[in-house]
Amino acid sequence: MRIVFAGTPAFAERALAAVLETGHDVPLVLTQPDRPAGRGMHPAASPVKQLALARGLALHQPPTLKEPAAANPIRAAQPDVLVVAAYGLLLPQPVLDIAPMGAINIHASLLPRWRGAAPIQRALLAGDAETGVAIMKMEAGLDTGPVMLERRIPIAADDDTQSLHDKLAALGAAAVVDALALIAAGRALWRPQAPDGASYARKIDKSEAAIDWSRSCAELERKLRALRPAPGAQSTLRGETVKLWRARCVERAGAPGEVLSAGADGIVVACGEGALEIHELQRAGGKRLVAAAFLRGFPVAAGERLGAAR
After folding, report:
1. For 242-263, how does the pLDDT look when each residue is reduced to its tens digit (9 = 90+)?
2. For the chain, what is the mean pLDDT?
3. N or C: which end of the chain has fewer CB within 10 A?
């Protein structure tokens, strides 16, 4: 089949590599325009663009697909199927209608749970026991289309956004290959999403990084994992913003935000329920440090208080 692929980050790059390995013809790859990145904020190619260039594939990087002319390269490619994975731009209905076999999307959740932009982070924040990927037929609604297949995995107790992303990227790449084989064989079956159980995975806002110490330790520990590797959960100590990267829950009690102890094993801070033993921290402008190294440069004493990040 002729496939036009649309995607931008590493999650999509894994899927494009899998599609190319199947031998399908990919006459065109869509990815977002280069964005400033790194210390110098120079324009950087997306992971999908880097792979496409390495494989000698034609690229199209429109800032939007809402302008009719932006779809002309897609029409010229004469795709049988559009495959979309974390592209980041809205595909209007006229674009979805270009491929006679339809447009499919690799979504990193078990639909209808966590439709939207941040399904991995929202699953972690909510304490979900499992997640997965869904191969969905795209339509005008936000992640509302019928599903052909899904693949499930448990969420491990130590999973963070990066580790879960990597697992789901591999799962999605394998799933889209299976889906394309079913489409090519004329055996694709689509089921409507369940009418109940839908939830929206809105994009993570910077304001969500602030830690509210009145919440339970279990909830705060999930927040650290959901916001790792970015943007990082934040608190304040002596008026300075501190990022908290790794921690575990312990059975200690005290006033929320109170430092109960501080030593080489970690800094124990009381929560609304239980306490968080923090193992890795970072001062503003500094490096991520294990607790022992952090305390050598920034001693902390029992009785001090951590507050909400500003």
Report:
1. 999 999 999 999 999 999 999 9
2. 94
3. C
Q: Which residues contact 26 (CB under 8 A, 6 or more apart)?
A: 2, 3, 4, 5, 16, 19, 20, 57
Residue 127, Ramachandran bin (φ over 0: left; ψ between -120 and 50: alpha; else beta): left
Instruction: Give the CA distances from residue 276 to residues 119, 187, 244, 260, 291, in Å, rounded to whole numbers and listed in that order.
Output: 25, 51, 10, 10, 13
Q: Which one-letter DSSP state was computed for residue 239?
A: T
Q: Are residues 150 and 259 in the same domain?
A: no
Rg (CA), the chain: 22
Structure tokens at 99: 């491929």
Dihedral sign of CA atoms 159, 165, 166, 172 in order? positive
pTM as predicted: 0.93
Q: Are 67 and 168 found together in one domain?
A: yes
Contacting residues for 122 by C-beta, under 8 A, at least 6 apart: 114, 116, 199, 201, 202, 226
Q: What is the pLDDT of residues 67-95, one digit of tens each?
A: 999 999 999 999 999 999 999 999 999 99
